Amino acid sequence: MTAYLVIGVVGLVVLAVSLVAGDLLEGVLDGLSGDWFSTEVVGSFVAALGFGGAAALAAGAPDPVALVTGLVAGVVFGALGWGLTRVVRGGATDEVPAADDVLGHDAVVVSAVPVDGFGAVRVVLGGHTLRFNARAELPLDAGTQVHVTEVLSPTALRVAPTWSALPPTD
């Protein structure tokens, strides 16, 4: 049983080092291809092999059954480690939208837009709240719903009021 416990502890040490050292250990297994041989997967497999075998021996199983139990546990936990590693590494972080991305979207005036100057608008796009300088053909009060019609620069837009925000033409 001691041998299985030592194997399990070695697997945990490999996992701990891979978590602390990050990608530092990834070059160690370069000869093997794919994510199946990452340090996280190998550490998970070895730890589960050791502790699974020790648990089987503690339950009174003979040595061959303990070995098979440890191998099955290692494969299961190695696959879980592989899947979790793929999820974490594949989690995309989208870039913050830029002025070109807001063209054609609706916004709200947060600082009044004079005829001959700039005000400010707030655009919510993809969960990001963006603030831009804004120009318009007619004066717009704060709180007016507008539509982005042109990108003037990376920090400035031309906007027009939406139909519901236009003043009455009596």
Quick structural summary:
The protein folds into 2 domains: 2-90, no CATH class; 99-165, OB fold (Dihydrolipoamide Acetyltransferase, E2P) (Beta Barrel). 40% of the residues lie in helices and 21% in strands. It is built from 3 helices and 5 strands, in the order H-H-H-E-E-E-E-E.
Word description of this protein:
Helix 1 (2-21) runs antiparallel to helix 2 (39-58) and helix 2 (39-58) packs antiparallel against helix 3. This protein has a five-stranded mixed beta barrel. A hairpin with a 2-residue loop joins strand 2 and strand 3 (128-135). The model is unreliable at 29-33 (pLDDT under 50). It is built from three helices and five strands. By secondary structure, it is α+β, with helices and mostly antiparallel strands.
Task: Please render the helix and strand layout as text.
Elements: H1 2-21, H2 39-58, H3 63-90, E1 106-111, E2 119-125, E3 128-135, E4 145-153, E5 156-161
Parallel strand pairs: 3-5
Antiparallel strand pairs: 1-2, 1-4, 2-3, 4-5
Task: Give the key terms.
5-stranded mixed beta barrel; 5 strands; rod-shaped
